[in-house]
Design goal:
homodimer; 442 residues; alpha+beta; eight-stranded mixed β-sheet
Amino acid sequence: MDLIQPRTLKGFRDYPPELMIPREHLLEKARQVYRSYGFAPIDTPALEYAEILLGKGGDESDKQLYRFTDHGQRDVALRFDLTVPFARFAAEHIGKLGTPFKRYHLGPVWRGENTQRGRYREFWQCDFDTIGTTANAADIEVALVIHDLMKALGLERFRIHVNNRRVLNGLLEELGLAGQTAAVLRALDKLAKAGRDAVIAEMGMAAVAPAQAERLLNLVEMAGSNSEILERLAKDFGTNATAADGIRRLTELIAVAQEAGVPPDFLKLDVSIARGLDYYTGTVFETFLTDLPAIGSVCSGGRYDNLASLYTKQVLPGVGASLGLDRLLAAMEELKMLETVSTSAPVLMVQFDPKFLGRYQQTARALRAAGIGVEVFPDPKKIGQQLQYAEKRGFRLALIAGADEFDKGVWKVKHLAKREEKTMPQSDLERELKSALLPESV
Amino acid sequence: MDLIQPRTLKGFRDYPPELMIPREHLLEKARQVYRSYGFAPIDTPALEYAEILLGKGGDESDKQLYRFTDHGQRDVALRFDLTVPFARFAAEHIGKLGTPFKRYHLGPVWRGENTQRGRYREFWQCDFDTIGTTANAADIEVALVIHDLMKALGLERFRIHVNNRRVLNGLLEELGLAGQTAAVLRALDKLAKAGRDAVIAEMGMAAVAPAQAERLLNLVEMAGSNSEILERLAKDFGTNATAADGIRRLTELIAVAQEAGVPPDFLKLDVSIARGLDYYTGTVFETFLTDLPAIGSVCSGGRYDNLASLYTKQVLPGVGASLGLDRLLAAMEELKMLETVSTSAPVLMVQFDPKFLGRYQQTARALRAAGIGVEVFPDPKKIGQQLQYAEKRGFRLALIAGADEFDKGVWKVKHLAKREEKTMPQSDLERELKSALLPESV
């Protein structure tokens, strides 16, 4: 029989253990932090009626849909994000769920994108949102969640850039550019990547005079501490009702976050942050790594006026953000923050003599019950071969015992990186392994 | 504008928090136990080339495939299980990964099945396998993993039924039925559901005389302890080389599992377990709940000779099993083992006075850092409304403080189910909450 060539589709990839272990670690930390704030998990189907998804992300997004006719002649498609399914979900269930409703949703989405930019056609999103309230407390909490999540992932050098679309809208009103808001903000969103000149040129296409564009850019790029910027905005634009509301919410956000224990350095008022999506109407967030700003925002989001207007008449305002899992993983890899191991258990128990398999598994199970992962090698191969396997996979310790050791009630513990071996009584094993596996002792 | 009707596809469903919380809990326990044995996570794409999936699960499975042509005119389909993608994955990567290779894989699969039997077209599988070894140690470990997983899920009353296809093959050889093995085992697999008469009738269709079928059924249903059955099998069929090998492996499995600490009651030698799939060649497992046997096996698997023969010439023997997540959740619901809460955090902090939002979040963050989930209510609504929200969601405790309490440095802690309220100093809060949240004090 001819063999079928084992291959994945273009733009898709397998996750072997060395990629999947850090991925699962990130997902677990995200769940942990989201839950600690009372966000509850939901899930929705990968497949939806095409009409639910079409026209929600623009023409480009429609073209990228994995869309087909199912067995029942239904027009269906794979979800391209988690926001549209959440809007459909909220419209369907909010009556029963009640508000405020806080949910997180981690899951894969599919886009038939051009893969040239190193993007994949299947990737995970990690969203959290509070809907059914306009309270600024919910906006503030998004900043706290992002901060605590980044810290939980071991990141110390990052900054959450925060702004409010109402401040930008007020500025544009005062500059006489209210009619060109969408085009101006789309251009502004490219500032970090494309630079001032490109932004001024793009604004020019929307009939914004260069001098006006300059003035706007000087405003949004104003230097100073958060409170200096807030003071200047209040002084210059405080009489504009829209801007004043945005300034008030930002002022409260920064004060409350600091009182709640977020050091001021982690939160940066950045009037240039617009977020391209027309969708956002209030607070907006982007998160940058100090050591890798060019990678872009690793956690972004904002406030919107109405989540599910296409599916229900019930007005559902909300605020949330999304962790850029793949981008953050790429960044952590570049920052050498990821362990490259391909084992889930740190300890390999060598199968020295197959007649002791029951005793090996007995000790291994006792250690597992104490929270220490232990793999028992399945074949009684030469010790050298088993240790080679352990080193290749990234096990940290190996346990060895045969008839002699069982007679004496001891185990040999081999520290693989240090190439050291200790012999210790069975009764000390748990304590010794726990201490040898502490991160600081690596 | 007309509203789009918010609805899910037939056979698909949303998971609101009260369904998703226990689901995530089960998945986490499965990961935890799999990892503790050294199984490492992998993932593969939801979409594969159709040729990878076609013909792997029989005609029925081909018909149920969600198959379509993608943007690049590729013939693609959604995976219908995790075994076929694992075979493709192994063929592609095993050279680099090396053997033995232990992996777990949790993820959704899709089948356009008839939904009348309460089945869904999207469901999760939770597989774990060791490949690249024929060692019985790997088979034995499957039994240990199943046992430890069920216990970790809080199940105490279950039994892992174990058999070996080689014992059955040997029996059939000795009964002169070697030529009809596949048909006989397919019939036998229906014994628990369809009963003896139906099985004898089906075997009749494969030219098995009723007397012979009776004799076979009497053998596979023989009563007795594990060791009694093993002794009788050895006595009657020990001269058949195939049966003898199966008996030897089963004998070792039962002895080692017991030595490793699995109480003998949890493991039942059951010669009637065939598992319908042609795929299995050695040890086979099924797991039944003592209080709900009719729900069927909640964790099944077995040994196979060659995982990936369609994709590679490298022979990859292995053994593994799959947790029936949805079936087990249904069973646990019926056994009233699932909490019905829709919050991820057990504590609601009432927003009594909005000017203290910073202090609320400060204390909430300190409690979160200590491992206690705390949601801060976003709006300063009436206390009664906030407590009603807390009760509806299943919060267990509410924290209340206003100017008076902050002056005195105290918090009011309300136990929602007991309707009791205590006032305590801020410094006691963490300890008191932890003690109030202990499972036994509910």
